[in-house]
Amino acid sequence: EWDYTDCQCQESGMNATDCLRTSKLSGCGSENVAVMHGDEYGPTFSVENLLTRQDQEILHENETNYWLASSDKTAMFILNLGYKQTFDQIRLINTHNSGLRNRATKEFRVFVSQKGTEPWTMVIYSGSLEDSRQQEDPLPLQTFNLSEKATAQFIKFELKSWWGLGGGLQYFDIQRDSHSCKCSKEVNITKDNNQAKWDRDILLYYGLENFHQNHRQYADSRDDKQINGDRLNSDGDPDIPFSDCEDPHNNDNSSGEILPIVPCGSIANSLFNDTVKLFFKRDNSEEWKPVSLLNTGIAMAFDKKRFNNPVEDDQLKTELEGKIAKPRDWTKHLWELDEDQPSNNGLENEDLIVWMRVAPLANFRKLWRRVDHEDKSHAELRDGLLTSYLYKLEIEYNYDVSSFKGRKKVIIARDNEFGAKNKAMGWIAISAAIFFFSFGFLFSALTRLDQ
To answer: Alpha-carbon distance 245 to 224, whole Å?
Structure first.
């Protein structure tokens, strides 16, 4: 069992919770960005101002919050991102020089480098911004897609042309890879175990603490007809869900059309989305090898019957794109939950099905993955996990527990005839036995007194 709530991100060394909170706006590690070089109109209009995003430009005698280049001159600045990062977008806000409204960037280029020196690789050849001098605050955030993902530590911005007296920017950043925080830990399966191996079948669980899935309003926030694939309109397309799904239950796309969220409700919206990997090696002289993990066979057969896609499994994107919206806190669309296995995609995804079965207690765990003992790439694990080997867990940290002051952990367990080890169920059984024994004794005593 490993509580990884406060683990450190491998890439940045940051606390994972802090890293995740930072990434809500611009990506993990933006506070590590430093200015290596910058052409400036003056020290008041420094490049450092670009690292902070604000709704309104400020222009006082000794205080501003945006960057300006010298009048009628090209300019450039170089940022150190703190460590190598992967990104596919540039995000920026133009300037209009506060109330003066006489400066704005028109054309620019962007380069990346591994060392901050030559060679530089151009990732945006000809970026162009509209004239923002007459726009009102807050000026719009604009994004520019790269032709392909870039991995670099240094980024250079070149100002090529401008509107008015010169160029500048109010804000500049990159859109980092959404999976930028990974935590890992070597695990010892020989502790309190003198056996040569853990017999198959090996299961991985995730555990959450202080998460009240049993709250009635939360538990009722779903549409059973929708998740069964039957909530359709007269055209056979997904319809607006049942009112038990907590508002907002629909969303606007770019055209302004009202789209139903599928799946709707608070349970689906809060879907657990950390990912786990398991590695092993015989000894320290070897490289880590991945253990194949199965994301099917983790949901109860009864539950799986109640979750059905409204269209054929292999036609989810073709038939549903533009007709439904994803839950507001999801980073993926419904048809992207498992693109490699159509039968485990969409509403029939077993991770979703497991999560939708609400837990009776605030501290719970749910089945996450099964070790694939039949995978020939690690035939030595066919009969179980050998205790003489070394093992490592790696987590992609996406799920925020700080909002409900919770904690999360990963558990490795062995399955058996009575199910995997579960302390909570043991305590429930003991408590129930004590309860029934006590009342049985009480009623027996009362009966004798009556006689």
So the answer is: 10
